[in-house]
Fold this protein.
Amino acid sequence: QQAMPYSARHRDLRRARLVHMTIDVIDLRNFYSQRLGIVARRLINRGIHARWPDAQGQRVLGLGYPTPYLGLFREDSERCIAFMPAAQGVLKWPTARPTLATLVDQFSLPLPDAAVDRILLVHALEMSDDPEGLLREVWRVLAPSGRLMAVVPNRRGVWTRTDNTPFGHGRPYSRSQITQLLRHTWFTPASWGEALFMPPVAGGWFLRSAMAWERVGAALSLPFAGVHIVEATKQVYRAIPAHRERTRLIPALQPVLVPSSVQSISASRPGERRDP
């Protein structure tokens, strides 16, 4: 039996790891239909709306599981679509209207270059087996004047300590890790925010006091929020490496080994007789 090529093995292993990391789309839907998920969506929507109050005339793309948050832009944007990775699965969205959601390969989005103005990443970076590859593909389809917003679980937050919510799955990030990842993939962080300062408890008192938790956490700049909300801009002109190979207009002269007999003849004076 012929051995599988390395590139094919690598791709299959990456997909296998991605399936292991990604939470199923049914679990995501169930979480956002529960009381804790409804409160989490309201608090995160509050942080997104503070940075993107509207999307008038913009082309908006959501990637990951963004449908609980795309309602902010569906009415006033030029178009608003949702891409969900194949390992996660896809659900119809919106429910009672023509479908605007589709299943995609997150490393090969079915869009031309510079096709959208804004991209919202939710349950995407932390679930991806190759976040740099994902962001480079996002960079490709984002317009030069476009903006990226990512909702990413906070590594220091309480929400990442439990797997009862989607934010406890995948890989959480610190602010410095997100900054480094964005800069490596040609983005510049523009603004920061946090959400989900309340603990992930579905008890009635915690849910009723959720907004108070948010106000106190934001006012005191507490580092234990559940998610980071980072907005970034696309770097259109990237730095060119300083090390270049010099172009030589004239070939350089190279030393050549000369036989000893030729050297002795050239060293003799003209007309001088030499013994054999």
Q: What stands out?
A: The longest strand covers residues 142-153.
